[in-house]
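CORE FACILITY INTAKE
Project code: CF-77B
Contact: R.S. (postdoc)
Sample description: multi-component assembly, two entities in total
Requested service: structural model of the whole complex
Turnaround: standard
Below are the sequence entries exactly as provided by the requester. Do not edit them.
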Amino acid sequence: NIFRVLGDFSHLASIFILLHKIQQLKSCSGISFKSQVLYMLVYITRYLDLPWTSSPYNFIFKVLFISSELYIIYLMARAYKPTNDPNLDTFHVEFLLGFAGLLALLFPYKYTILEVFWAFSIWLESVAILPQLFMLQRTGEAEAMTAHYIAALGMYRALYIPNWIYRYFSEPTHKVDTIAVTAGILQTILYSDFFWIYYTKVMRGEKFKLP
Amino acid sequence: EPGVPIKDEL
């Protein structure tokens, strides 16, 4: 459906915006390396089923997400390392890993390796933006491209919510993926403050600056 | 499988 497709392309667009920002400004300043590593972990643990992915659409996106994230991490850790300031990127990711790990172990759909890792990836994704938002809060402002990146990334999961509602009514089984839906709503709530400032400032041509 | 949604999303 349209929400799902727009969501996935928003996700892809966010990655292109981020790569464009890093390469055009030859800098990864303002980007949280910790959030990027968490996204890498999200992709690895979610796409363990990559070799068995039957849908070409999903397969292509999975390969694109994993490879582009690897490239972003390479750029941040090697090519543009001097522009990456660890003193601003100080969020304690062990809390996020603990949160995702605990929920994955307590409530997986099934106690299999794939299911536990899948649940872990869903919960981890829901909070993986926090180091980035924390960094933004510390610097108080962001380059336009960084703000566009975070907005597109947040829009992706937000668009999954109408997708789930649409699927619930349009598919005869009326299935609800409780883990994905709960985590997706949590993820979107975490972005809400950012979305508000993005809407009131950046979309009106102003700089992204915290009040 | 009952209870396990098909992982057809990203």
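Facility notes:
- Chain B has no helices and no strands.
- Chain B touches chain A through eight residues (CB under 8 Å).
Invoice: internal transfer
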